[in-house]
Amino acid sequence: MTPLDYGELLRTFSTELVLLFLAGLVLFLDLRRGLGETVACRTRRATGLTAVGLVFAGITLFAFPPLGDAPGGTFVLRSLTLWLKAALLILSFTSLLLLADTEFTPHVGEFCALFLLATEGLLLMVGTENLLMLFIALELSSLSLYGLTALNQRLRTSTEAALKYFFVGSTAAAFTLFGISLLYGLTGTIQFSTLATRASALTGDPLLWLALALTIAGFGFKIAAVPFHAWAPDVYQAAPGPVAALVASGSKLAGFFVLLRLLQTGLGPLAGSAGWLQFTSGWLPVLAVLALTSMLVGNLAALAQTSLRRLVAWSAIAQAGYALIGLMGTPEAGEPALLYFAFTYGLAVIGVFGVLGVLETSGEPDRFESLTGLWRRSPALAICLTTFVLSLAGIPPLAGFFGKLFLFIAAARRGGSLELLWLVVVALGLSVVSLYYYLRILKPVLVADPATDSRPLNPPPVTLLTLITLAAALLILGCVPQLLFLGMAWLSKQ
Amino acid sequence: MLAWTLYLSFAAALASFGAARCCPALSRWIALLSSLGGLTLGIAGAWALPSGGGLLTLVKVPWIPLLGAEYHLAADGISVVLVWLTGLAATAGVLFSWNVSHRAGEFFGWYLTLVGAVYGVFLSWDLLLFFVFYEIAIVPKYFLIAIWGSTRREYGAMKLALYSFAGSAAVLIGLIAAYLLVGGNTFDLTHLSTRPLSEASQSWLFGLIFLGFAVLAGLWPFHTWAPTGHVAAPTAASMLLAGVIMKLGAYGCLRVALTLFPAGLAAWAGVFGALAGIGILWGALVALRQTDFKFVIGYSSVSHMGFVMLGLVAGTSLGLSGAVFQMFSHGIIAGLLFAVVGRMVYDRCHTRNLDELSQQRLAHVLPFTAITFTLAGLASMGLPGFSGFVAELQVLTGAWTRFPVWVAIAGIGLIVGVAYTLRVIQLVFFSGETTVPSPAPSEPLEPISLPEKLGAGMLLTATLVVGLYPRLLLDWILPALQTPLFAELRRRTGW
Is B139 within 8 Å of A390 when comparing Cβ atoms? Predict the structure, then answer.
């Protein structure tokens, strides 16, 4: 690609441009025609339009695939780029479908527009190997998500959560920016590829370690790893369902991959070692500590929750710990493992928020008791929720089991002498703990009889269809994990 | 044909869940026909095995190329024997839960899922597939106990689930390590067993994996889930738990730990042999002191599974064949005992307290039950003519040269076994004769139904036939022990 070929540039960013155009369109249409219509009607129309637009964006992704890297690493085409973008669009699309049957906010147009901008930010994040572009994309998605979090007008805590999200997030962003500026000052480049060669000459420089730690802090916030996790329980609890779903799925997937790209490609020579009792300085021991604390804190705190959404949040923190273990694996094994894990995890967690959303729409509080007797009140929802929760718990043949398995094997492969096996041991030990709280969710769902005055639940059609599709996808991707990789191979051939 | 046992069970499970809403009664018949079908397929399919007990590959297709895992089902003589056990126990379990009416469709759905997973474990030759089936079995157990169970069911169910999951986590760590250390990007059992690892690796891997599986086999002191789980479970589930699920653990010890890491056996045999010996005596002594009828059987299971473990760690030909024989034998006998306690006695008298039962003159009221339990009790004591005798004799002879002390302790355990069995027979069925005639029960107990008689007859026949003509099983087990899979173990333990 020549530096100033606008045709090529247009083609490279066609998907992002579609999303941008769509965001404007949704906002505009809702403003003009929104007068005098019910919120439910407007919500349905805006959701429909946005969903169609996302599908269209997905089509442009394959119809006009980018041809190569853009100058300066602002856009790179790697074997996984297209597939990652497709995965993000799928996760965003499914999260959005949960909006269709709700009416928690009158600001429908703004909601959909921000939702699309957040998605756009995530897409840009996974497609770049340039620190500056990375930061802009990170901020685009984060700022949109702060705004979205505050849009749950049913809950007063929604605003509080958004503010907390914003404060923690902007602090983390400041850290990242500081880290990036240090990296630039030390190496004189913002491109990952040149960063790798220049950084390896500086291994003894303490400033480099500071830069590394600060940069990782920003991404630790994005994936909700301990100690950058404080926002997660509040946001998961108070954000609108579709937003919580996107924060938990797409935003995490992108966060994991950017971190993987930055560390493995940009700072590969500085890995160090995190073998048991043989730590040497580098980013591996940093990740090891993050993974360890995330798994410990997440799993143990989840045991004590009484709110379902907060439980999902703490379990998400624990799952981020598992993903960090996979990040530490060899790049060849780690990338597909992380992709499979993050994608199927996203599907399951979107599903959980979907089921909880149905309960909330029917006016039930966010507590375990609301699930009592779900098997009788709505068998379909009960089956779906069981599938999602068991997948999160890592019970085969659901996808969650294979996700974790791939991650653990990828990590254990590093170094050839099982030096990271100790992390796998901790992870598996703590996943036994996690089974307890996951079964605690399922106990009221399947075991308890419904209260005598409970009514049957009739989930709205779009939500129900989405949930059933998600559950089926988890089962199929679990029984035949190869499907996902076949899709990946097919895409990289395009 | 053998592979269809598991497809049939899973399909029937789906059908049963589907029938849950419209016609739960149908699910009962689905369950009965599919378990009978599984048994028939298991027996008929066994004749395809080469030379009576050699390895037969059923299916082998790529499954997860990323890890080199294959969908590889295969069977040898040992698998076949355990498939038969599963078929028998599953069918009997359905017959003894013919009266389940609360959420019957879901009950049989979970039940058949469990049965399908068990078939899967016994027929997998790829270790990842093996592990997947092994884990699938955990969830149905939890729900069967938590929904349809009795005493402290939610506690019992959770305890069982967490113990099983912890055991399998240990196994998974070992499997991942073995997979990476052996190399070759495959989970194929034959491949892994022919590339011996260093002695040091084998030693820690053996300990980890054996221990992980032994949790499910009820090895002392990791057995405490078993009595509480058995007691809390509904009849059919305790039959499967004691009859088949505990065998999954023992089967894993044999199939994975012993064949993959034979060098580790030498390092660990002393420890696990001691635990098995203690378990035999401990289980028997605790059973002697119970006041709950079902706890007696629960602890007797721990004691009897000790024989399986003792035979396994002995590592001799006689020990191993005795262990497999005991798996089959205990599966049948324990199933029968739990059926009598849970279905025939508890469902009718609504108490399991031995003192209260002793007031009811059950031998007069339920003569069939009394006869069945007495026969099952005799089988459980290891009387010649029943399968338990053949099995325990083999185990004790096979283990004698290596663990004379623990064999002697196991012998004492056998005597205590006679004591606790006679005690419950006497207390439950034949007491109250000489004292003041107890008041007649306010309403007559429901008579023993036809399905119960059929189920009891089937299990009794099985233990008698195998006891009288042990070659029926040994002709399958012994050739399987001669396959190359056990070559390294044969060389090391010298048989």
Answer: yes
